[in-house]
Backbone:
């Protein structure tokens, strides 16, 4: 059973945190407790418990780290290209240089975009799975 916290904040919100179920916590704000009835609150907390059970926090942390690593590598490649990744002595390979510049610009634009889209798709999928897990835990699906 994860630790449960109530946060004194008027905005309605709930979240789960922790890398594994043994070190997890779920929290809800007082604003959420004020506007929801018992059944709705059970659904929300079941959703957060499903995130804990499915190791979603760990998975999202790894996805964020991978996305950040891709951004760092692209930033490094961009700086390498900008500050002289090729020698200016040889004018023989102008076509290869233009192709390398075009490829670098394409990589600088598309790699972080692809990483962000993949992270968002993963997040959306895990939210749907947490909704399903909440129904399993509470046994009260919405009509």
Residues:
């Amino acid at each position: 059973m994860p630790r449960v916290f109530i946060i004194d904040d008027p905005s309605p919100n709930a979240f789960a945190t922790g890398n594994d179920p043994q070190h997890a916590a779920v929290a809800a704000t007082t604003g959420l407790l004020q506007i929801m009835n018992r059944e709705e609150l059970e659904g929300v907390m079941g959703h957060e418990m499903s995130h804990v059970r499915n190791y979603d926090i760990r998975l999202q942390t790894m996805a964020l780290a991978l996305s950040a690593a891709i951004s760092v590598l692209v930033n490094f490649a961009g700086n390498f290209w900008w500050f002289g990744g090729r020698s200016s002595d040889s004018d023989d390979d102008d076509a290869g240089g233009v192709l390398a510049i075009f490829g670098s610009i394409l990589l600088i634009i598309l790699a972080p975009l692809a990483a962000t889209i993949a992270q968002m798709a993963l997040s959306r999928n895990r939210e749907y799975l947490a909704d399903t897990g909440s129904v399993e835990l509470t046994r009260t699906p919405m009509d």
Observations:
- The longest helix spans residues 94-138.
